[in-house]
Amino acid sequence: MQKMRDMASSSGLPFLKMHGLGNDFVVIDLRSGDAALRPSLVAAIADRHRGVGFDQLAVIQPSDDQIVAADLTFYNADGSRSGACGNATRCIADHLMRDRNLAELTLRTERGALACERAENGQTRVNMGHPLTDWQDIPLAQAMDTLALPLEGAPVATGMGNPHCTFFVDDVDAVDLAVFGPELEHNPLFPERANVQIAQLVAPDQLRMRVWERGAGITLASGSSSCATAVAAARRGLTGRKVRVHLDGGQLDVHWGDDGVWMTGPTSHVYTGVLTPNFLASVSDEP
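The structure assignment produced for this chain is given below.
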């Protein structure tokens, strides 16, 4: 069995452990190097008992665009790719702005170039881009009304770099998300699977939300899911375009403006570590 010897350098692979509201990440900075991040390695690092553990892994790469500070690529805990990760984007933006002593910068993801800025009380905000509300852009399996999908509960579908399916319920804590989430993640209406949110209106500008993320499961928070839920609530006429989203791990402020969906919240760089050569060499190339 071939091992990942190309990764097993004498110095190992440095990483950052970060989180936004308990939504946690391993961040690998490859702006001055290269590494083969195969799905099997990503999944091995995600193992909270035998690896490091994370909801998503983010890779920082150099950009060929002078106005973009870095390109970001995201992976889920199961090794699959993720098109967006709002909290990780905020964490990395905060890290790079501190490193460069900047108040704003631009990062590029699959969603395109995203503006990131310093906010009040040491928080960081990012423009996650315009929401996608047409069925083919999300994408869904066939043409349908994205404001009321033909599923029990009539959820709202939204694209924010990832496909999202948002249910509005009377009590989010009454839903068994561990059962409900995976059933909807793999629903045939979502050919690329879905992030599943259950949301409850608690005030005209306040939402309580819990999330099941595709490829990761239940997480304490999700930036793209918070944006999708805020957009879904505004489209349904439940709220205006500026709301506070209360998650299991804390709260995010979301503003759906004319230039895109802005998300603001805290970030944390917990520690810096190194994946050892022995660990890297122990991971099979096979899935």
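Interim note for the steering committee: The chain has two domains: 13-128+267-282, 156-258. The radius of gyration is 19 Å.
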